[in-house]
Amino acid sequence: MKKFRTIVFDLGGVLIDYSLERSIEAFRRIGYGQIETLIDPYRQSGVLLQLEKGEVGPEALYDEISRSVGRPVDPKAIDAALCGFLLDIPDYKLDMLLDLRRRGFRLFMLSNTNTIMMTYMKNGVFRKQGLTIDAYFDRLFLSYEMGLVKPGAEIFRRMIESSGIVPSQTLFIDDSQANVDTGKACGFDTYLAARNEDFRPLFDRIEPLV
């Protein structure tokens, strides 16, 4: 049985289910058809990539869409369309995170995300059991706060440096092959999660390293 001190989770596609189609349709309803060229389950482009890297704030997205549509678009409608990408975190996965922490594992999140979607998740899905996100994770490593995105190796190195984790004592779980490949190159044990996978049996085969 393998022993790990820390487990690092990706968010979208690993913990939270998503629907690219639902978000695209919501953007079309507000008149912004170009969203298909920007949004992707694994890596964004254009202003969305800038938002994920923390290079611009939400106002840049609002301005870009309003210019493209040719009229002012309510920022709340844009937020709702962007967050339409997200569905829900199944309760069993929230219970899983709590159980892993009780067992003695340290849990980190390493996610390419942005301030709009992360605010939505912190105030919504992560509160559905009456707790906050801090109940589920020891540390959050978020692309827009770090100015870095996966699959670049620098975001992994920055997480290692700022937390002191030992990659060989860490399990990294992501749904992107490119991200998993980088994690492996940085010395992590890795697991490639399938979309909507119930990977709880994975944790029956590991123990906390204390």
TrEMBL record:
Residues folding into a coiled coil are none
Q: Which Gene3D superfamilies match?
A: HAD superfamily/HAD-like, Putative phosphatase, domain 2
| One Pfam short name | Hydrolase
On the tree of life, the source organism's domain of life is: Bacteria
* NCBIfam families referenced in this protein's UniProt entry, alphabetically: HAD-SF-IA-v3
The record's PANTHER family line, in alphabetical order, gives: ALPHA-D-GLUCOSE 1-PHOSPHATE PHOSPHATASE, FLAVIN MONONUCLEOTIDE HYDROLASE 1, CHLOROPLATIC
Indicate what this protein is called per its UniProt record.
Answer: HAD family phosphatase
